[in-house]
Design brief:
By secondary structure, the chain is mostly helical. Helices cover 62% and strands 0% of the residues. It contains 3 helices and no strands. Helix 1 runs antiparallel to helix 3.
Length: 88
């Protein structure tokens, strides 16, 4: 594809596979969390080093869900605005 300024740019490939995979993993993680609430509350409630498991679980959910939503918005064509460089 050629832009008005004569620059060549390639059309970005949309991450359908990444979005689908991370969506399935995210749904699976939320289902496992909700179906095993009592076990997880008892296990993570021991305190001490077990508190790190809770933090690690939160990071895992954040990573997977964030990756899914990032791919989701990219597939929809919503991207963050890029700053333009000012020429002085």
């Amino acid at each position: 594809m050629k832009k008005d300024g004569g620059e060549m740019s390639e059309k970005k490939k949309k991450p359908y596979a990444g979005m689908t995979l991370m969506g399935i993993i995210s749904v699976g993680m939320y289902a496992a969390l909700l179906l095993n609430q009592d076990f997880l509350n008892n296990y993570f409630g021991h305190g001490g080093a077990y508190a790190f498991l809770l933090v690690a679980t939160a990071f895992a959910f954040s990573f997977v869900h964030g990756s899914f939503t990032g791919h989701f918005w990219t597939v929809l064509g919503v991207e963050a605005a890029k700053k333009k460089r000012e020429v002085k």
